[in-house]
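Regression check, molybdenum atom case 355:
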Amino acid sequence: MPVAGGDTVGVDAHRTARPWLTPRGTNLALLVVLLLVYATGAASEATGAPGGWWVTSAHGVAALAVLALLPHKRRVVARGLRRARSTRWLSLVMAALLATTLLTGLASATGLVTGVGNLGILWLHIAGALVVLPLVHWHALARPTRPRRTDLSRRTALRAGVLGAVSVAGLGGTEVAVAALELPGARRRFTGSVETGRLVPALLPPTSWLDDRAPTVDAGPWRLAVADAAGTSHLALGELAAFSTTRRVTLDCTSGWYSEQDWTGVPLSALLPDRGSARSVLVTSRTGYSARLPLTDLDRLLLATAVGGAPLSALHGFPARLVAPGRRGFWWVKWVDRVELSSAPPWWRPPFPLT
Ligand SMILES: Nc1nc2c(c(=O)[nH]1)N[C@H]1C(S)=C(S)[C@@H](COP(=O)(O)O)O[C@H]1N2
Ligand SMILES: [Mo]
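Current build output:
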């Protein structure tokens, strides 16, 4: 009895001395949480319909989980730095970039910083995340932490649960604080975007996905190629006006702004009445930029020729641009010169435009 009792005390003392997360546990948890941060971050950029609000929230929760793990990681880092590896500086660059990405994300969520120079805060956040990604990849391979079968234990599930709960509470707390302090972040849309130039087309920021430049289009010879199951036709700008209708729709750019405008143009469903067995609609710009949308979107899509009652300007897509309600800005193809029904499935496209 006394011997057994002594043993128990010994084991207990050993247990309490053990940190809540071992260095290995910290590294694995960070890896998983970073994967979640990247996945939800990319998904937040893709989502545009109100039903997708939870994606952006999940991104916030994952980001706070990273934050919660940092004190644990600090101990691991301190140990690693003592080892004076030649690639130490690379890890430090990575840490600095990750910190910048975390801070710009936080700045965007609170609305406390809207940008640096003429670079929007969300743009900086995304740029940081993309630049640091290869470094994170390198770091994970160069300092591998291999998962073990025993990692899949009830104990791990419990810890993951605690980390998740703490992060959800952290996000809730942050949002309550942002609202209570009336920080600018409280006025953001569910995508994280900030409003600009409501119903004032002149304040709409001309934006490209990557490097597209406004082509000069002569309206006279311009024709829109329209291809459906019945064949291809070519319409002049004047012919489009015949079907004209006006809708108030929000353009929400992934670089962090949104703007509601009155768009006037032709419903795509009027241009493409003969659907046949089509599965998607492909909208192509004179520049080569394009978007493939599911056929279920067709009834909502508008090929706009005017905004706020005036013809589109060259920078905003003259003579015609797509208006895609519930979809992020990169779907809103400018300088459209071709719309066609296609038998290809709607998912037959890169997740984001490549040009
Ligand atoms: N042809 C073409 N259309 C495009 C783009 C582009 O790079 N090329 N950028 C898209 C993006 S990312 C956005 S946010 C909107 C911006 O529209 P705006 O310039 O009228 O504000 O156009 C979209 N349409
Ligand atoms: Mo955009």
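Comparison notes: The longest strand covers residues 257-267. The pocket of molybdenum atom (ligand 2) is lined by residues 207, 209, 253-255, 329-330 (CB under 6 Å). No diff flagged against the previous build.
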